[in-house]
Amino acid sequence: MSKSGELYFAFFGTSITEHLEAYSEETDRQFKHLDIGSKITIDEYMTAGYVKKVEALLKIYYPKCEIIVHNFGYSGGNTRDILDKAITTLKDSDTLYDYCFLEAGLNDVARRIDRPKDAVYEEEYAENYAKILKELKNKSYKTVCMTSTPFETNENSLDLALDSYNKVVKEIAKNLGIDCIDMNTRFKELKDSVELYDDGRHLNDVGDTLMAKVISEFLINGS
């Protein structure tokens, strides 16, 4: 990876990627200490999470580069939604990204339980995922996919289904000649001993840090 100039990164995925957090100008600096019980106005919601951490790490590792990161996460999105977002976001874009990253599958599986009509089953998932990767490949020098992070609560039926979907991801990546980061395995190695989640699906700060660590190591170690 270049040590100078501009580096462009795009991240596509679910709420794991988008990770919206409330922002207020009243609390945007450490030295702005409001009284306990104060009411504040939320000005907007901003993306954060692992993508923001990756951006910060890259700025440290490549201080002579201008790091430009675009977070195209889609909260609640399945692969149908993320495919639509990739198409509409990239079709008129003049940006050729150095790296495009993709994580998708958690909601395709989870909707079997909470919104069955929005569930995406394996055959369609494979078709959607391959189409998303092809869209990203057309707009990047390098495209990288990631297996989906596991469910915290050991919901066997969901985790077994997710394992099957992650096998699909690896197979598609192999067929398309795309690097695949096995994020699922990295989380399973730690999830029984370290608190990685806010609510069983969404990541806490430690989970986000783990994702950022794995991605930055992938980038820095000569990917």
Describe what this molecule looks like in 3D:
By secondary structure, the protein is α/β, with parallel strands linked by helices. It has one domain: Rossmann fold (3-Layer(aba) Sandwich). It is built from 8 helices and 7 strands; from the N terminus they run E-H-E-E-H-E-H-E-H-H-E-H-E-H-H. The strands form 2 sheets. The protein has a 5-stranded parallel sheet, sandwiched between helices. Helix 6 links the parallel strand 6 (140-146) and strand 7 (179-181). Helix 5 (122-137) crosses helix 6. The longest helix has 21 residues, at 156-176. The chain is globular.
Core attributes:
two-stranded antiparallel ribbon; 223 residues; globular; five-stranded parallel sheet; Rossmann fold; alpha/beta; single chain; 19% strand
